[in-house]
Write a structure and sequence with these properties.
The protein is α+β, with helices and mostly antiparallel strands and 114 residues long. The protein has one domain: Orthogonal Bundle (Arc Repressor Mutant, subunit A). It has four helices and five strands, in the order αββαβααββ. The strands form two sheets. Strands 3-5-4 form a three-stranded antiparallel sheet. A two-stranded antiparallel sheet has the order 1-2.
Length: 114
């Protein structure tokens, strides 16, 4: 069987485009301590980010209060483990310095002042 080089190259090009298309719907999160992040669905990331920022817009919240609010807000409207995705997005927002932890006991989360 003869295989032309141009046929092989075209096939590889198609596979690359498929992978690139899937990667556009994913986001690589970061960790505030420099640990490895996670690739998660862009829509899930955006949903959790919006919910976290909305919850912290009014006041500072402890971890328990924040996740209680996330579960209350997203239950039945989010496919996936709200706590896992919430923690992943929260850590990413901390790494990007959008939110921060307070020094108080217990620690609270708040939007980082500009």
């Amino acid at each position: 069987m003869l295989v032309r080089f141009s046929d092989m190259n075209l096939s590889a090009s198609r596979n690359t485009k498929k992978r690139e298309g899937n990667d556009r719907r994913k986001i690589l999160t970061h960790h505030p301590l420099g640990k490895s992040g996670r690739n998660i669905d862009r829509n899930k990331y955006d949903t959790l980010k919006k919910a976290i920022l909305s919850a912290l817009r009014k006041n500072e919240l402890t971890h328990t209060e924040l996740f209680s609010r996330l579960n209350k807000t997203l239950k039945g409207r989010f496919s996936g483990n709200i706590s896992w995705y919430g923690e992943t997005v929260k850590l990413d927002l901390e790494a990007k310095k959008i939110i921060e932890r307070t020094a108080s006991k217990p620690q609270k989360y708040r939007l980082k002042p500009n």
